[in-house]
Amino acid sequence: MKNRSQYYTRTAQILHWLMAIIFIAAWIIGFYSGNFLSYDVDGSFKGTVITLHKNIATVIIFLVVVRIFWRYTHPAPELPNTMSPTMKRLAHFGHLALYFMLLALPITGCLFSWSAGHPAPVLYLFNLPTLISENPEITAIVKPLHIYISWAAGILLAGHILAALKHHFIDKDIVLVSMTKQPK
């Protein structure tokens, strides 16, 4: 087996940061619309914000599939030898959990939209095919599931960011740098 680079490929880096921006934007917009907006008399403003949230968040479904394929065909750099085996296992588990969240969150969001009788639009270009019909019983299940998963994903993302910052500023290793630069 050939030696793995200490750095992620440029494609992996672009996918990582693009998905991070999209996920954080969709999470903030979803949080804002779910907690701070009430419908106008005609429901227009909150509906517009929720539609923006959906148009951004559905892109993650496509990107995570590309990213998983890329990761499968281009292994991640090895973690530093300064990390204990337990910390390496926790880092691996954390990444698997992030991938799970990146799939589960938009899928439950789509199920929520469809079961409530709404489309799941992608970048204002097209709607994902509706896989289930309007069904209030399903909505009653997937709405709270989507909300709980969003909170779990937000907490997991915060942990991911804090771990990257710890590696950079405290451990002074190249874990964060491996996702931002290429070797010279």
TrEMBL record:
Coiled coil: none annotated. One of its GO terms (molecular function) is electron transfer activity. GO terms for biological process: respiratory electron transport chain. GO terms for cellular component: plasma membrane. Residues 8-180 form the Cytochrome b561 bacterial/Ni-hydrogenase domain. It is found in: Cell membrane. Keywords: Cell membrane, Electron transport, Heme, Iron, Membrane, Metal-binding, Transmembrane, Transmembrane helix, Transport. Belongs to the cytochrome b561 family. This is Cytochrome b. It comes from Acinetobacter faecalis.
